Amino acid sequence: MIVWQKIVFFILFTVLLSACNEPILNNPYPKGLEDQQSVLYASFSERPKHLDPAKAYSSNEYAFIGQIYEPPFQYHFLKRPYELEPLTAKQMPEIRYFGALGQPLTETSTSDEVAYSEYIIEIKSGIQFQPHPALAINQQGQYLYHQLSAAQLENIQWLADFKQTGTRELTAADYVQQIKRLVHPEISSPIAELMKHYIVGLGDYAQTIKDKPRTALKDNDINGVEVLDKYRYKIRINGKYPQFIFWLAMPFFAPMPWEADQFYAQKALIDKNITLDWQPLGTGPYMLEENNPNLRMVMLKNPNFHAAFYPSEGEPEDKANGMLDDAGKRLPFIDKAIYLLEKETIPYWNKFLQGYYDGSGIASDSFDQAVQFTGEGEVALTASMQAQGIQLQTAVNSSTFYMGFNMLDSVIGGSNEQARKLRQAIAIAVDYEEYISIFNNGRGVAAQGVIPPGIFGYSAGEQGINRYVYDWHNGHAQRKSIAAALTLMQEAGYANGIDPLTGESLVLYLDTAASGPDDRARLNWYRKQFAKLGIQLVIRATDYNRFQQKMRDGNAQIFMWGWNADYPDPENFFFLLYGPNAKAVHGGENTGNYQNMEFDRLFKQMSYMSNGTERLAVIRKMQEIIRYDAPWVFGLHPKSFSLYHSWYHNLKPNLMANNELKYRRIEAQQRAQLRKQWNQPVLWPIGIIILLMVVLIFPAVRSFQRRAKETIK
Amino acid sequence: MFNYILRRILYAFPLLLGVNILTFVLFFIVNSPDDMARMQLGQKHVTEQAIDNWKLQRGYQLPLLINQNEAGLNKIKETIFYQKSLRLFVFDFGVSDSGRHIGADIQQRMWPSLAVALPSLLVGLLVNISVALMMVLFRQSYLEFSAIVLCIIIMSISSLFYIIGGQFIMGKLLMLVPISGYDTGMNAFKFLILPVLISVVSGVGAGARWYRTLFLEEIEQDYVRTARAKGLTETQVLFSHVLKNAMIPILTGVVVVLPLLFMGSLITESFFSIPGLGSYTIDAINSQDFAIVRAMVFLGSVLYIIGLLLTDISYTLVDPRVRLS
Q: How many whole angstroms separate alpha carbon B321 and alpha carbon B324?
């Protein structure tokens, strides 16, 4: 046998042998792992920028650090409306109010009376940090790795290369350390400037430590934040800020041991990308075992995790839905969570269908394959999804997308009657129900105001409609007719959309950073909506940076924007229209630069009130003002559709919590069986292809051989 | 030859400086340091103070190219360009704007890129040459005609189609290989089969036709006629004479791309979730991370210059008539 034949034989033999040994050829994971442990397989499309809880502020970052770090409070997993409960705290904080002279005040005191308030937080004893080399000590109690020598560094490429790890008990000082970190210039926390306004002494503290290394934080104290004893600390807030409690449930206020800053400050580690921004150190149910954001991120169950149990109460339907089956059981259920980098939706979707991912969203490309609408307009899974036992879960996001008007603009802005009626007419003409149907596959709810469903102050039904845009008809909100909008146009002085100054169609400008091929259809749709009123909409597409600049300078006329809730309070939405937050004037989040004195007054009043009928009444007044003034066309609240395999349990959407992984449960055996069933390789086409090639080449070879043997005649 | 190589290396310095300045100017025409800060700090609650802090920490508070507030050499030295770009000449890529060490990232990401690109190149070369030789061997037969038609069809189809189609057929329908993913060590093998196969198949149309042209040009030469007249078989003529003489353009074409294999392929790596360098630059542009953009452009330029130099050297190795002077 000649050499090449031997090689071909060897390759075929190896392939066949491996095919016999491995019944599933397309399994992207190492063999046998999923049978032995409860492993979650998920993905991420964009690597998280930061895992330092002082820096991280986006959902893809919270997906990781929410499982690793524990702020003092958390959102109850099952209860709705969203409710805060203690996490590492022993109980909810004790809040005290004081007047300008330091005299104690009651909770009902107004914001004008309260000079400052104090939050006293007591944490549980006995909570331990995850095993980490930063906490490793020798028998003399000295830290092993805080001053690494060249010899120690020689074999260190990853954090896991450190042979020794240690732990210690969580203390109140660790929470205070993290508050100090928020304002250190090296860290650049996104909430640093915001918190300087609220936390007493934080601004001064920033000045004190601005030229000092991070390691100096421990020895410098903040005036308004104090460690009372081992388990108690106090935060002093300027005035009254009831929403501060929500911030205390975010990773910004999770504990950070000073040892972490000391350990990660070593240059040799920074040069190897071993930093606190990439290698967290927390007390949560999971710890990051592997952080390779270019490939995968792996979280392991934290062996030091404190006792935590699945909730035993929730909403009335939770029991029937099986959400309380694990009530009282110790958390977490999943041993290991593997997040793989998956940039494209098509391979991700196909791997989900093969059972290699436990859950998936639905991209537009695969929407029809996954979901269908019934005759009654209800959403249902397609037969193929049902056959695989896939579960569908939908939730309206606590987000609002809107079309904003620049209130500083001379045509569309201002509080005069002409501009207001023009805005109201546009609000009627831009049909967001149609938009949701065409561009979102029905995944959204047309907004009636600034507050999305699930947030206090949102009203469903007739009471909650925007009566300037909708009528209540047969139990449904029905958009007013174009005739009504044209009447408003006439009243505004633009009969049939004609601008009396030019005698031609009124020209308005939509400023956008969306200029890709996918956006073209969307922008054309907007043009058509304005054309219903005879208005010519000119798209001023620009790059993202220039668009942001226009917004900051107040040079945009009409624009699209959105807001995702930081916390479940109406204040977090109404502040987007609060005058002192005007973007062009004060650099705030009021993108339309809307200003209404009565609205601003009510906003201040509402912000300091507790949820109840009085607050609801104020909220309704505020909604009425902005519906009438129409600084926005209230666009939509997006609806997320998620798919999960049958082996994935405890899946109640919680849009506020970011630490849900500990509640999830996987039936590993069931998954292994179904994966095997769904992924049997099909080998016969390979044989057909080889046969076809032989059939094709053989006559040519014969013919060549014949020709080669021919003699010249 | 030594003098020639030395001269080429010296020429590379102004070239790289020019590339650096161009990258710098182009990047900062589109993005200001303020924009970069906003991108890194996120969209919510970003104040001017936070932006100033960010710039100060990363040295972006300086003027771009000329510092009018300084005197003498400091006019140049106290600028973002000087502070950020000149270190590249000693391959100190520094830290990305998001805080990661770029050198470590490149070291980590270049191996997966190479793991896909090198077998794709070698197998592709082997297949392309084999197909081209077969077309020449069976020239003017139905096999050559069919192969040319097939090559043109293959060339006419977008590479994206091969990727999606390959994943669908091999990964989803036949379930022979994982649809996407990557692993380290020997575990990477099963993830490389499909991207390499697709790369070879999608490249065979253009490659085989190009090599066929080279072979046909050689086959008309006098020395081939002489070889045939000596009584050599067609296969002996092709493999011993034609292939050897056609190797010069083949070799030079391959050598020039060798250093660039480290840089990876954007689409392939993106669809197959291969953690290579292909998407590193694009991700950096999207996140306005100038530190990575300038490092990658610089690295690409250096590798390209090395490729051209190697090509020149390879000429002298395969063709004794060529002398570098």
A: 10
d(CA B60, CA A361): 39
Of B109, B181, B275, the CB nearest to A28: B181
Which single residue is written with the structure tokens 């190479």? B114
For the whole model, what pTM was predicted? 0.88
In which residue are the tokens 């993830």 written?
Answer: B191
Looking up tokens 């205070």 gives A176
Measure the CA–CA gap between B282 and B292, rounded to whole angstroms: 10
Cα angle vertex B190, ends B184, B194, to 5°?
Answer: 120
Are A200 and A223 in contact, with CB atoms under 8 Å apart? yes
Residues A301, A286: contact at Cβ < 8 Å?
yes
Instruction: At A526, list the tokens.
Output: 């907007």
Residues A190/A213, Cβ–Cβ less than 8 Å: no
Q: Which residues of B touch A57 (CB under 8 A)?
A: 42, 44
**Cα A523 from Cα A541, distance rounded (Å):** 10
From CA A350, how far away is CA B194, in angstroms rounded?
15
- Chain A residue whose CA is closest to B228: A708
Q: Which residues pair with A636 in a beta bridge?
A: A401, A446
The dihedral sign for the CA sequence A474, A478, A481, A485: positive
Pull the structure tokens for residue B299.
């690295």
Tens place of pLDDT for every residue, chain B, 325 residues? 788 888 888 988 899 999 989 988 888 888 888 888 888 777 677 778 888 888 888 888 899 888 888 888 889 888 988 888 888 888 888 888 877 889 988 988 999 999 999 999 999 999 999 999 989 988 888 888 989 999 999 999 998 999 999 999 999 999 999 999 999 888 899 999 999 999 999 999 999 999 999 999 998 899 999 998 888 888 888 888 898 888 888 888 888 888 878 788 888 998 999 999 988 888 888 888 888 988 999 999 999 899 888 888 888 877 777 776 6
B181 CB neighbours in chain A (<8 A) are 28, 340
Strands (E), A253-335: 286-292, 296-301
Question: Using alpha carbons only, what angle is made at residue A342 by residues A341 and A347, rounded to the nearest 5 degrees?
Answer: 150
A566·B44 Cβ contact <8 A? yes
Q: Which residues of A touch B104 (CB under 8 A)?
A: 271-273
What gap in Å lies between CA A170 and CA A72, rounded to an integer? 11
In terms of Cβ atoms closer than 10 Å to its own Cβ (0-12, 13-18, 19+), residue A111 is middle
Q: Does B68 touch chain A (CB under 8 A)?
A: no
C-alpha neighbours within 13 Å on the C-beta side of residue B323: 2
Token pair listed for B200: 């070879």
Say whether A405 sits in a helix, a strand or coil: strand
Instruction: Please list, in sequence order, all residues whose beta carbon lies within 8 angstroms of the beta carbon of residue B186, skipping any fewer than 6 positions away.
Output: none
Contact A223, A237 (CB under 8 A): no
Interatomic CA distance for residues A422 and A413, integer angstroms? 9
Question: Across the interface, do A50 and B98 touch by the CB < 8 Å criterion?
Answer: yes
Dihedral angle computed from the Cα positions of residues A151, A154, A155 and A160, in that order, rounded to the nearest 10 degrees: 80
Tell me the ipTM for this assembly: 0.85
